Amino acid sequence: MRHVAKVAGVGIKTVSRVMNDEPDVSEATRQRVLDASLRLNYQLDMVAGSLRRPGRQTLSIGLLLPRVANPFSSRLHRAIENALTPRGIAVFAASMDDDPDREKALVAAFLGRRVDGLVLTPIARSQIHTIPEHSRALPMVFIEREPLGIDADAVVTNNAVAAAHAASHLLAHGHTRLAYLGDRADIQGERRRGFTGELERAGLYTYRIPVREGLHNEESARQAALELLGGNEPPTAFFSSQHFITFGVIRALKELRLSRKVALVGFDDFALADMMDPGVTVIAQHPERIGKVAAERLLARIDGDDRAPETYVVPSELIERGSGELSPAP
Amino acid sequence: MRHVAKVAGVGIKTVSRVMNDEPDVSEATRQRVLDASLRLNYQLDMVAGSLRRPGRQTLSIGLLLPRVANPFSSRLHRAIENALTPRGIAVFAASMDDDPDREKALVAAFLGRRVDGLVLTPIARSQIHTIPEHSRALPMVFIEREPLGIDADAVVTNNAVAAAHAASHLLAHGHTRLAYLGDRADIQGERRRGFTGELERAGLYTYRIPVREGLHNEESARQAALELLGGNEPPTAFFSSQHFITFGVIRALKELRLSRKVALVGFDDFALADMMDPGVTVIAQHPERIGKVAAERLLARIDGDDRAPETYVVPSELIERGSGELSPAP
DNA sequence: TTGAAAGCGCTAACAA
DNA sequence: TTGTTAGCGCTTTCAA
Prior knowledge:
By secondary structure, chain A is α/β, with parallel strands linked by helices. Helices cover 40% and strands 15% of the residues of chain A. In chain A, the strands form 2 sheets. Chain A has a 6-stranded parallel sheet with strand order 2-1-3-4-5-11, sandwiched between helices. In chain A, strands 7-6-8-9-10-12 form a 6-stranded mixed sheet, with helices on both faces.
C-alpha cells in the first residue's frame, strides 16, 4: 500500500480511502491510485486491516456442524452462506463428530482467528466449558439445541410437537404396537418425549413401547429393527429419529420383505424418499429456513442488537408418502 | 499480551514464547505466564500474529466447491477438513453455483483474507481471469478439472476411462440403442467422450446415439429421458453423467414402469442406491480419496515443494446393482 | 480533499 | 533463559 502510494504520488491514507471506497477523494486522484494499484497488482489486505478497524471485525464467522458431509448440516451450511455472502462475510466450517473435546478445540481455533460470530450445533451438554469466559459476549447462535450455561439465541425445529404428530399419525392408522429408534438420548430426547408422550395421552402403556437409543449409525439401527421384528409382539410401526436410522429401518424391512406391512415414519427428509417402495413418510425439517433465521439473528447481534436472547422455533412438516399410512395386518 | 506480561512480571516476548509453546522457557516463568493469562482470560490473537510471521501464514485455506450442499462437494469438503485440521489449518468453504463471476469474487475474497492456499473446482474455462496475477504462485490445487492458463496440481477422477467402462458394460449386456444424458458439456466432456468413444470403437454409429447435454437439474433430466423414451427407437439403456441426472432418469423410468426394462448406469454413487428397485448400477467416484490427495498436495506446496505441477488421477469404480445389468427386451 | 503520525497485537532479530 | 526494539499493513485521529 505504501508502495502504491509512492507510485501514485499520494499519501498512504489516500490509497486506503480509494481501496475502501471512502468518500472525499477527487476523481482525479482516485484514478491515479487505481492505475497504480493495478500496475502493481496490489490487493488490499483484510487481515492487516482488521487489526486497526473499530471492533476489529474480520468479516468471517465460524460454523460448527455435526459433520459437514451430513445432508442436514450441509444444507444448513448453504443457507447460512447464502445469507452472509452478500455482506461479504466468509464462513469457516468444521465438523464436530459428536466429540465435545473437538467442539471445544474448534471453538478455540475460531476464536483465535477472531471471527465476528459463531453458529453452532452444540454437542456438549453445557457450553460453560466450551465457550471460554472472555468470549461469552461474542455474537453466537445455537442451532438444534438451546445453550446451557450461556445466554444466546437459538433456532430449533419443533421437535416434540413434530414427533407427537408422527405418533398420532400412526395411531390414526390403527397402530398400537409402535417402536422408537433414536440416536443420542440427550440430543434427541425432545423427539422421544414428544413421541412417547403422545402415545401415553392416547392411553397406551408406554412401558410396552420399545425405545432403542444410542444408535449411532445405519447398521446399528438396522440391527435394532431386525431384533424387534424378530421378537414376540413385533411392532407394526416404527418411528426413527434421524435420517440414517430411517435408512437402517428401511434395510431391515426390505430384508424381511415387510416394507409394505410395517409402517415407518422417519425424522428428516432425504433424496429419493418418494422413489422408495413404498415412499417413505417423513417429518421434513427445513434446514434452509433454520439456517436463514440463524444467520439473520447472528447478523443482528453483530450489528449491535442487544435484546434478551430468544429461541426461534421453525416448524417441520409431515410428508405422507405411503410408509406411514400402512395399517397393521388385521 | 502486553497486559499479561505486566501481570506475570515478564517481557512480552516471553509471553509470546509460552503461548506458542516455544522452547527455552524455564518451567517457573512458564507457570507464571500461564497463570496470568488464565487470570486475565487471555487468548492469543492469530490474526495479529500472522502479520509478522515469516510467509505471513494465516493457517487457513479457501475451498471453492460447486455447492457446499451437494453430496460430492460435502464429502470432498470433509476429506479436506480431515487432512488439514491436524495441522491446525481452518477451512473457508464457499459455493460457486456454476457462476464464473461468483468464482472470481470468492477467489478475491479469500485472497484478501490471505489464505495460505486454495482448493478449487473450477467453473470458468480458463483461470487466467479468476486468479489475479499477483497470486499465481499461491499454493493451489484444482479438483475435477485441470487448470487452464495457470500452472498447478490437479486431482481428477478417471472420467473418460470410467465412462468407457460403463459403455462397454452396457454393450456386454446386449444394448445397441444407448443414450447419454449430461450436464455442462465443457465440464463433463470427458465423460461424454469416454462413453461415445467406446461405442464407436465397438462399431456403433455414434450419430445415432442421442446425447443430451445442458441438463442442469433433476427435472430437466427427467424430461429429457421421457422424451427419448417416447420417441421412435427409444433407448434400451441410459448413461447419466451426474447424480441428479440419474435421479431424473430413475423418475422417468418409474413413471413409465420401465425400471426393470431399461438399463441405467449413473455417474456418482448415492445413498440408498442399492435399495432402489432395481438397485442402481453406478460409477462411484471417491471424494474421500480425491480430497485427501488434494489436501496432501496443497500441504506439500505450502511446505515449499516446488516440483513441476502434476495431475493425479483417482480411479472410480463400477458398482453393479441391477439396473446396469438389465438386457434389452428381445 | 489530503497527508503524517500513531499504534492495532503480535513475532523476528538481536542483545543481554 | 529473558527482554528490547522494530515493524508486519493497515486504519484511525488529527492537522493542514
